[in-house]
Amino acid sequence: MAPLNDTELFRSILRKSTNIVAIAGAGLSAASGLSTSGIPTFRDAGGLWRSHDAMSLATPRAFFKDPSRVWQFYHYRRETALKAAPNPGHLALALLSVPEHLKIIAPEAKFTLVTQNVDGLSARASKQVSPLREPELFEMHGRLFDTICTVCNDRKANFNSPICSALAGTEDNLKNDSNIPLEDLPRCSKCAGLLRPGIVWFEEVPHHLEEIKKIVDDADLALIVGTSSTVYPAAGYAHEIAEHGGTVAVFNIQRSDNDDLAHFLFIGPCATTLPHVLLKVDVTE
Question: Which of 151, 183, 147 is CA-nearest to residue 165?
Fold first, then answer.
C-alpha cells in the first residue's frame, strides 16, 4: 500500500501517540546550508573536497595516515557549520522536546530526537526554544565541535575558530592540501597529545546504541526526517518500529528506496514540511 500524505489523519495519530521518536539525517540541515558533512552530502555527485572522496577521509585509517589532510577537511566543516543557524525544521522538532508544547500536540506522549547529524544544530535549536532544559537528544554520530585526545582520551567541546592557528585560512584553499607539521595540529590542553575530531567515523561504533534501542522498542510513532535510510543501524529503526505495529512518517525532500515501509510520506524541504505538519505553522523559504 502506498504511503499517505493526509496531514489531518497523521495529526490524529500523532495526538494519540505515547512514545514518539524522530530519526534525523542530513536533509534536516539542508535549509541551513549544511549536510552532515558541512559540504554537499557524502553520497551525491558533489561529495568531494579538494578532489578527495569525502567518505575516504572519514575513517580512523585516513586520520592516522595523514592527520594534516583530515584536520583540514574537518576544519573546513567546522567553519562552515559555525556560519549556519538552526532552521524552522530544527526548531519544530526542538519544540516537541518541550513538555508544555508537546502536550498541546500529543497530550500523553514522550518525544526523543535521535540525530545522525554532527553539526550541532539540533542542540542549538533546543537551547534556543528552551535555554534551561536539557533536550531528549541523542547525537549518535558524535559532535563536530568535540575533540578527543589520541593519547589520554580526554573529550572536550571546542568552538574556537580556527581550532589552531596553523589551520587558519585553509578552508578557503579548495584545490591543494597544505602539509601542516604534526606538532602544529590541534593539541590536548592536558597532555599535549594530538587531538582528533570527536565524531564517529566509518568503521567506528555509534554512540548511545543501547538507549536508542530501548526508545525504538517502545516507540509507537517514528518521524524519519531528511534521511535516505542507508546508514546502519539508523536505517533499520523505521523497519523495527513498523514491525512492532508503530506508525512511520517520512519527511524528506525527495523519494528514497525505503519509502515503501512508510505509512505517511511528506515530500518537500524539511524546513517547511515539519512546521506545517507538526505545528500547523506555514514557513516560506
Answer: 183
